[in-house]
Amino acid sequence: MKHSWRVSGALLAAIALQAAPVWAQKGDAEAGRIKASTCVGCHGIKDYSNVYPTYRVPTIAGQHEAYLTAALKAYREGQRKHPTMNAQAGSMSDQDIADIAAYLAKGGDKE
Length: 111
Ligand code: HEC
Description:
The protein has a single domain, classed as Cytochrome c-like domain (Cytochrome Bc1 Complex, Chain D, domain 2). The chain is about 50% helix and about 0% strand. The protein contains six helices and no strands. α4 packs across α5 and α4 runs antiparallel to α6. The chain is globular and about 25 Å long. The structure holds heme C (HEC).
């Protein structure tokens, strides 16, 4: 049986990621998707509305990458105070923040 050399979708996606613009700290949106999975429950990335708990949560999907990076670093460093977000960002590395910001800046899972 002949082997087919068709290029897989995953490989194409990997190539596309390599071609993405280079930022000061390069965020990997695919890694960010996984790291941001815990954020969805509150930030309701898909439809911008939070079902439960029912308090108001700012929209983060689609915000500017630099803004998201600055906000998460401010929470991590305690310059911006909010118990939940201080806890969320507290254990993030610069790379984590870059990845998450890259993912969210592209709109998260919203098409
Ligand atoms: C338990 C609920 C909850 C979870 C989980 C959560 N957040 Fe938040 N987040 C909030 C709330 C509430 C605020 C508003 C805090 C404030 O007023 O400063 C906020 C604010 C933010 C902001 C600032 C938005 C702005 O407009 O300035 C960013 C960025 C953010 N969150 C990112 C994340 C990321 C990334 C994750 C996952 C790693 C996450 N959040 C997980 C509740 C949550």
